[in-house]
Amino acid sequence: MMYLRWVAKSVCSYALLVLGVVFLVLECVVWGAISVVLFQILPASVGRRIGRLAAMHFFRLFLATLEMAGAWRLDLSALDRLVHDGALIIAPNHPGLLDAVLVVSRLPNAVCVMKAGLLNNFLLGPAGRLARYVRNDTLLRLVSTAGNELRLGGQLLLFPEGTRTVGGAVGPFTEAVGALSRRSGVPVQTVIIETDSQFLGKGWRNLTRPEFPLHFRMHLGRRFDPPNDVHAFTQELERYFHRELSGRATAVALSGPVSTQPVENAPHLRG
Asked: pTM of the full predicted structure?
């Protein structure tokens, strides 16, 4: 009997994985095809706005659909408080590949920093180009292009680690966040991502079955003013994340589904 329950659980888990991949790919294909056309005919300002709004709504639909299917439980409502704050550099820790999806799903003017290979990818590239996401090939070009988007009021999503965390609370930080903040004069809003799983983290095997449901919760951290000394700022930022994450429990127990309503109406967690 226990073996049969284990088999049933495994089958359901793999079915959720397949559902997630298929649903996300379908969204990317449909919106990507539309984005190719809109990129050609719309002015940059209109394409930028439509592209970012569409990314938010498509990711929100993806997350809500998989939550209803039992894949995860989310509390992302803290991010809603940033919607009307204007230009920001949003700097979260980076436990897994879902982090950007989680953040962008709550922010209508989010600007992602994407590797050149992803912007050239047939699935993600067309939507990224329409939304005027920033290509990450060299630090100089990143700072220049991202600075332009910040001057237009965008909220730039930039992970201080530069890649997903490898062991421990956070990995070594790059100086990209500090350099961009100094040059643009835009503050850095830290975001703490709590999760109880290493799903899609660095080294995660693609066919490994996670323990569903996964749990994710967002907290707004300290907002840093633009620095004068980029190196010192990067060290301070890294120490801050180490303190925050080491003081939090790794397991996250959520009591309700993701909220798609404004933060003032969102249910609060207990405990």
From this structure: 0.89
